[in-house]
């Protein structure tokens, strides 16, 4: 088969939709940094201070990390120490900066991991769709209902798809998904439906406008 709407992978739309969960993840782990920074064990790395509310402690921790980087001893950054005292001072400075900086980077690491795995699931689905379509073998043909729009769900939101409702020859109606940017099919239009694997315990179907090059395998 030639190019289809599923060949256009909407990565831009995907990343824009991931902005909200990434924001909440960032806020959660940001305040988590404040909780850890309040611990006695962690405060022993730097100058001990009174325990503050975790949100205040988080802001204070990032402020201290930035100050440590921008106002650290010049001889530690250049590596040009002149005596043992400066060497010990640098050793303590780097130890504190590494530990504080590692804690500060935790939110960014978790956000990066979330995006990495989310993009992996997203790309795998589209590769699976494209592979099935290239074979030109649909599971069955179905007729678009009136109205054609289906109820949006977490699957359609995450994978940037648009749900429609189609009716099988045995009168059973199922939800199928089309590309988000594709035009809504008209009621009565014939669609080639491709059966995908289950997602969150529910079988998923993807639909493409039927053309003679598509072979219907099951028929119903």
Task: Explain what this protein looks like in three dimensions.
The chain is elongated. The protein has helices spanning 11-37, 40-43, 54-70, 74-78, 84-135, 154-158, and strands at residues 137-138, 140-149, 161-167, 173-179, 190-199, 202-209, 215-216. The strands form 2 sheets. Strands 4-3-2-5-6 form a 5-stranded antiparallel β-sheet. The protein is α+β, with helices and mostly antiparallel strands and 220 residues long. The protein has 2 domains: 5-128, no CATH class; 136-216, OB fold (Dihydrolipoamide Acetyltransferase, E2P) (Beta Barrel), CATH 2.40.50.
Quick synopsis:
The chain has helices at about 10-35, 40-45, 55-70, 75-80, 85-135, 155-160, and strands at about 135-140, 140-150, 160-165, 175-180, 190-200, 200-210, 215. The chain is α+β, with helices and mostly antiparallel strands. Strand 5 (about 190-200) and strand 6 (about 200-210) form a beta hairpin.
């Amino acid at each position: 088969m030639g190019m289809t709407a599923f060949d256009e992978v909407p990565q831009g739309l995907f990343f824009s939709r991931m902005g909200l969960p990434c924001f909440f993840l960032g806020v959660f782990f940001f305040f988590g940094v404040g909780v850890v920074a309040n611990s006695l064990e962690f405060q022993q790395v730097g100058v001990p201070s009174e325990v503050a509310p975790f949100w205040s402690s988080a802001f204070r921790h990032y402020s201290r990390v930035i100050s440590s980087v921008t106002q650290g001893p010049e001889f530690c950054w250049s590596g040009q120490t002149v005596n043992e005292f400066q060497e010990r001072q640098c050793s303590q400075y780097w130890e504190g900066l590494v530990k504080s900086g590692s804690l500060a980077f935790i939110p960014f690491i978790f956000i990066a991991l979330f995006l990495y795995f989310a993009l992996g699931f997203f790309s795998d689905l589209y590769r699976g769709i494209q592979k099935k379509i290239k074979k030109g073998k649909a599971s069955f043909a179905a007729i678009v209902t009136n109205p054609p729009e289906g109820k949006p769900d977490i699957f359609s939101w995450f994978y940037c798809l648009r749900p429609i409702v189609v009716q099988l020859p045995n009168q059973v109606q199922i939800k199928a998904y089309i590309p988000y940017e594709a035009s809504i099919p008209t009621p009565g239009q014939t669609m080639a439906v491709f059966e995908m694997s289950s997602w969150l315990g529910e079988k998923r179907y993807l639909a493409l406008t039927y053309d003679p090059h598509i072979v219907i395998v099951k028929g119903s």
